[in-house]
Amino acid sequence: MSNIRVSYAEIEAAASRLGAGRDEIIEKLNHLQALIGELVSSGFVTDLASVRFTESYTQYTQSAQQTAQHLTDIQTFLQQTANAMRDMDAEIAARIA
Predict the structure, then answer these.
(1) What span, in angstroms and rounded, lies between the C-alpha atoms of 66 and 47?
(2) Which pLDDT score is estimated for 2?
(3) Which domain holds residue 63?
(4) What whole-number distance in Å separates Cα of residue 89 and Cα of residue 93?
(5) Domains in the chain: how many in total?
């Protein structure tokens, strides 16, 4: 039984899907932020509550976007892992006479 089994294509595909998922999340958050902006400019307008709600929702959106951006770190890790494993395999193969 082998201790290492690596599919570069699967690792790279997962990295790609993470990047696409991150982009979808950020796009959705931006869309929802715009929806809230429209709401507090017409359907929910008060002297204090709507202003505070807007501030709170904006903070939430920014926090969620930062969290989504961490998917970039995971995506990069997976890409680097695939590259490192590929390079290691080539190096080992080159040492075999």
Answers:
(1) 30
(2) 73
(3) 8-95
(4) 6
(5) 1
Widest pairwise Cα distance in the chain? 79
Q: Name, in order, each residue with C-beta under 8 angstroms of 82's C-beta and a sequence gap of 6 or more.
A: 6, 8, 11, 12, 15
1, part of any domain: no
CATH of the domain at 58: 1.10.287.1060
Q: What is the per-residue pLDDT across 6-45, written as a single tens digit (0 to 9) for each?
A: 999 999 999 999 999 999 999 999 999 999 999 999 999 9
Q: What is the rounded CA–CA span in Å between residue 48 and residue 40? A: 11
Q: Supply the pLDDT for residue 19.
A: 97
Give the single-character DSSP code of 6. Answer: -
This prediction has a pTM of 0.81
- Separation of alpha carbons 53 and 87, rounded Å: 52
